[in-house]
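Q: Predict the assembly, please.
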Amino acid sequence: MESLEEIKDRIEAAMAGVRLAIEGKSLVVGRQHLLDVVRFLKDDTGLAMDYCSNLCAVDWLPRTIKTRECDRDVQRDVPGHLEVVYDFYSMAKKHGPLQLRCRTEGREGTPSLPSITPLFRGAEFQEREAFDLYGIRFEGHPDLRRILMWDGFKSFPMRKDYRPPDDYEYEPTPHDEVLEKAKQHWPAPASAPVTPSKPA
Amino acid sequence: MAMDESLKNELQKAGVFITSVEGLYNWGRKNSIWPLQFGLACCAIEMIAAACARYDQARFGAEVFRPSPRQADLMIVAGTVTKKMAPQVVRLFNQMPEPKYVIAMGACAISGGPFKEGYNVLKGIDRFIPVDVHIPGCPPRPEALLHAIITLQKQIEQDHLTGKHKLRAYDREQQTEWPVPAYGEHDLEPPCNPELWHPAPLVREGVK
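A: Predicted assembly structure:
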């Protein structure tokens, strides 16, 4: 398989107005060009990416990136967003993986991205899982509903700001974060009798 | 049994067996416990192993796994109970006819196990249904499941048909159907059955 720079140059030459970025080992594409780029990767004879093996989502909270440029400390604020990472392989040419990332705008409510299910049937359940756990709405998906949690569930469990329900009343051996949560339920020190520390 | 043991032994040698209706009833029930096949996760594999040739469960009469709850009298909850599955577990338990028993197999069924902090994991099936025997382990060995069946058999031996501590099946005041939790917006509603499950008070020295 060609290197990421060569793939990027070919895509930008083949489609007008498309700009990709390279971050680490993945290509970053904007949401308005996602379907075109994926179709190019699938139809191109040199790449022939006909198998989408994985589709997973990432939650980025708003953060400040500090870098050092030309002896100066530079800060830039990146607003929070959700991101989907695609892994493509080629069964015909036996090469891969090619990793593609696509970002949403913001992470309030349920931000949307185009769905690649019309091109890759295998992405159907994976996109349902990303919707269920992260709240990314995929436009063009034939049957977008929750797959792991029940249909009336309201929040998105894998987001960084998810608060799980508080049922830590009975924790015999807590430590670290569970200890903090269990302490909410402990009796007040004045009423606790002094007995050997064995659970009742 | 209000009878002299030595007299019973003498009569047995002569070929005369003396027992009570209760003893006979319990002997029949304990030696033919029919489990409901209810493997949810990895503990199901150990349950299958306990039913296979090496750790034969058929020796104890518990070989026929019934697919229908209406024909079973033991529910072995083997594996992690997710919150999505919990109402169905309670519904199946309600459909079993009395007298019925529950074995909570493995750490997940007892208290949530290694996945206790998961967003979809119910912290123990004894929050919603009454459990008779708990088997610790992750997963417990098939011999541990056989030990649990033997423990359950000993419990069944002590069951009474009349009197103050009679079986749930013969006691009109006791409930035989447990409320099924509903899917709430963030958790099951109710998150546990308050009549059934009380968090045991843990007393700690030097609580801050």
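Residues 32-156 of chain B form a domain with the Rossmann fold fold (CATH 3.40.50.12280). The longest helix of chain B spans residues 142-157.
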